[in-house]
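Bench log, entry 3. Co-assembly request; chain sequences pasted below exactly as received.
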Amino acid sequence: MTHGLTVENLSFRYGAKTVLDDVSFTVQNGRFCALLGPNGAGKSTLIALLTRLLVSSQGTISVAGHDLRREPRKALGKLGIVFQQSTLDLSLSVRQNLAYFAALQGIPKTEVPGRIDVALDRLDMRKRADEKARVLNGGHRRRTELARALLHDPQVLLLDEPTVGLDAAARQGITEHVHDLITTGLCVLWATHLTDEVRDEDDLLVLDQGRILHRGLAGHSRGDHTLQDWFLSLTGTSA
Amino acid sequence: MTAFLRVTQAIIGREFLRFVHQRERFIAALVRPVVWLLIFAAGFRAALGLSIIPPYQTNITYETYIVPGLCAMVLLFNGMQSSLSLVYDREMGSMRLLLTSPFPRWWLLICRLIGATLISILQVYTFLAIAAAAGIVLPAWGYVAVLPSLFLSGLMLGAIGLLLSSLIKQLENFAGVMNFVIFPMFFLSSALYPLWHMTESSPLLGYICGLNPFTHAVELIRFSLYLQVNWGALLWVVGSTVVFCALAIWGYDPARGLMKRKT
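Structure output for the full assembly:
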């Protein structure tokens, strides 16, 4: 079975400060992996490395079998990304935002309208396709970003705290939708510090102070405790 | 290849859409050179004597002299404005979308540079039309001949802006750029006075003006408007464009560049 996402011995420093220290993990196709860590654990740095916004000389990252350093174009082409901060152009419509992204991914022009309709239908956003991103609420903006991240049929989906700033209903909607996506064989890495977004059947990685503290199945890991209590006792910090 | 053209078209198209949505910026960018042309030049005309220097073959008014410098001024301010929007994009996150595209990063940055330059050129032509309406008419073919010079100069100034945007850590630091980059570049050039005037007053300042790439952009534009090529200026501008583009691309390289603290 091919691995969706493989990280081996990845380290990263900002000057003298070690932000990631010998991080290794694998997320297989069709799996939802929650990357759980308190604020400042190194999650965003890890996402920046996985998306090639940063590059480390130590360690390797492989996306859908493509080494990010040696084959960056192929690897990035297999990657769907939802950043913590919104990356929508608020002055453009939902459709224009998706069309711009489609061009950045090199999707042939003839395929773009059809793909946009499918992606928006999947997230129940088609009726808002011609609205400016500026008028959408936080939940709909996130759905648009998720639809956009799936436009080029990626094999690996990275989400960096995608529910930040959303109300409870929108948060639940996005979390459920992404969980449903793994049935299509997609490999999902979901960075969060919120334990209620993680299901028992999810793979779990706990990152703290730049190191992987724990990896396993969420349900097995927590045992009889709630995931929140287990996580707090493991990291010794507030979530 | 088609995919490369598509991404080029999309990035340039987005620059145009952004431009259409920010008409106030367009007007503001035009007001600046028009004020210089109609007010500053009127007041300054008496103070500055102009001899006949190439490419001019007769005596010219001061307004006519500063038109090429003001065209370059539009390109300079737009180049810096574009870098400001890059810093803004980076802070707001939309730069990430561009930088995580599977296309080569240098290509994406060059496309954005070309898009911003084309918009600057639109503004220069609007300014030239206003100047013509005010009675400062240049040789008819000069309006066509100047296009490559405007494009090249716009690319060079945009590349300087791109490089600055990779160096600036936060949006707030941008005011410093205005003071330490834009104004010295503009005033230490031949935009407002011929170089010999400056050299007469201070040989050192004249020498610095001669090293300023902006001076050469101004002269390249000036000669083109009069259907001549200033080869020295052309060489300077091409060389500076290549160097600043290379440095800017290096600045945005995730492995070696200066983005490390800003993602």
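The two ends of chain A are 35 Å apart (CA to CA). The first strand of chain A starts at residue 3 and ends at 14.
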